[in-house]
Amino acid sequence: MSYPPLADVRKTFRVDWYRSPIPGAKLRELSRRSDRQAWFQAGGHLALFCLTAALVFHFWSLQLWGAFLLALFCHGTVTSFFSGIASHELGHGTVFRTKWLNKVFLYIFSLIGWFDTYDYNMSHTYHHRYTLHPEGDREVLLPIEPTLASFFMLQLFTISLATKPRRVFDKGGLISTVVVTLRAAFGGVGPDFGVVVGRDRLPAFEWRRALHADQPEEFRKSVRWSRILLLFHGSILLIAIATGLWVLPLIFSTAVFTANALRYFIALPQHCGLRDNVNDFRKSVRSMRVNPLFSFLYWRMEWHLEHHMYAGVPCYNLPKLYEAVADDMPEPRTLIGAWKEMRMIWCRQKGDPDFQFDTPLPPTARVARSDAPEEIELESSIGDLAPAGLR
Q: Structure pTM?
């Protein structure tokens, strides 16, 4: 499948998105960033990482192996949300009001999470502008299989060594991530791991190549960042070898690949099984209600429909955003309900590859806006995500 150059897409392709009406004053209020709430979210997540890391080290030093494994599982669960979750929202630049704090936390989470924020920011800018329109968004390509395969599950509950990414910017296993980072540090894109998209096989790194050709300056930053990642994690390994503290790589370098099950179960429902090539986020994005702990670890991204509709709203204000536009929105799923829905859709798609689920809307919902947006720029904002060449 061939696509036009991204520079041509920006010139010729525009999606006229439907967004649920909201008064301009209310949107401005919800779009305000708060250092206090940001410290609770970002600082709290990092503090939880330090707490579980201390427990891992403590039980390792006492050779209490049962407690050590349990602590390592909890530590991996907490850390798995660093990559593509914490770094996602910080990449939007909407968490802290103080911009340099946003950058500092972004680099901390990305460093521990083996996350290339420069490649991702390019891709995610297109993802928001052209959500699930493959001409301009290949970060997510439908259909996605909500797999529960036994070997895949085994890795998710232990350590992911060889799992392939479901999406281009989902991290793969430890081995593939190290290989890709090594290649990227020398200006390469990575081996042609294949991801199955419907009945076609699409090279997972074709999208990255398109992004690099489109934004060469960001590509150079990505190369430098890959070298920093290797330097950081290589130093951790050398310190472990020199001191005999082999627990250090488990705390800092492999934790993001450990116990990924919760992240998988809560993150997959974002778009899985829904419709592509539509201009209504309510048909292509799914929101859920989850418990407060899961919501905290997931940085409120269970309100994913609201995030796509008004991406300039900080994550901690998304529940309030839903309340403001609830009459125009589909009912949020439960986590279990979302998975039942995705599995039902996938069973249909195996027999009918063209089937896509049409999310029902409430009787009070609109299908088109009759009023002009009060603040078009604020409505379409994606925060500070877009690199200079895409603004």
A: 0.93
Please, what is the Cα angle at 261 between 153 and 306, to 5 degrees? 130
Looking at residues 314-323, what average pLDDT do you find? 98
Partnered with residue 280 across adjacent β-strands are 18
Residue of 379, 140, 11, 83 whose CA lies nearest to 257: 83
Whole-Å CA distances, 199 to 195, 240, 291, 350, 351: 10, 45, 36, 10, 12
pLDDT-based confidence at 222, cuts 50/70/90?
very high
Q: Mention every residue, 6+ apart, whose C-beta is less than 8 A from residue 160.
A: 172, 173, 174, 257, 258, 260
Q: Is-contact 306 321, C-beta < 8 A?
A: yes
Other residues' Cβ atoms within 10 Å of the Cβ of residue 135: 16
- Report DSSP state, residue 384: B
The whole-angstrom separation of Cα 246 and Cα 239 is 9
| Structure-token pair, residue 385 | 């995500």
What Cα–Cα distance (Å) separates residue 181 from each residue in 72, 174, 178, 184? Answer: 24, 11, 5, 5
SS3 137: coil
- The first and second tokens of residue 263, run together, are 């992240």
Angle (CA) 359 361 366, round 5°: 130
> What element of type H or E holds 196?
strand 194-197
Instruction: Categorise residue 36: left if φ over 0, alpha if ψ from -120 to 50, beta otherwise.
Output: alpha
Task: With beta carbons less than 8 A apart as the criterion, state whether 95 and 41 touch.
Answer: yes
147-178 pLDDT, tens digit per residue, is 999 998 999 999 998 765 455 455 578 988 89
Q: Which two tokens stand for residue 56?
A: 């891992």
> Collapsing DSSP states into helix, strand and coil, what is residue 200?
strand
Question: Tokens 């909500």 appear where?
Answer: 146
Alpha helices (H) along the chain: 6-12, 24-30, 35-38, 44-62, 65-80, 87-92, 99-112, 117-129, 150-157, 174-185, 206-214, 216-243, 247-252, 261-267, 281-284, 292-297, 304-309, 318-325, 335-351, 376-379
